[in-house]
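debug: dumping io for the single-chain case to check the tokenizer round-trip. Nothing else runs in this session.
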Amino acid sequence: DPTGGKKFSHRMLREAYELRRTGDDAGARVLLENAVANGGGPRAEGQLGLCLQALGVFQGAAQHLREALRAPEDPWIARNLPSRERASSSALAPCSIAGPSGNQTNVPGP
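debug: decoded output
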């Protein structure tokens, strides 16, 4: 079934969103990597990029964010494009990212 993989990826994205929302970026990373590997598309790429950025994996974050930004027509990317561009800039220049400060992180939804 050609839609089975997409449903599976969408479910992984929703689960990863919930994990990230509760601060479990490491747990979300596994789901997001699986979503990307299963054809989750630009949304999965973008969410994995943000997750990796939160974990301090800046090179991987930049790669996935750039891939996500290649699909500006995707509804999720279009809705979150301004935050994606800022995150991509931050991921490309990790020196500009402040250390742990307790500030709330916005996690775009699925």
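debug: round-trip ok. Residues 2 and 41 are 14 Å apart (CA to CA).
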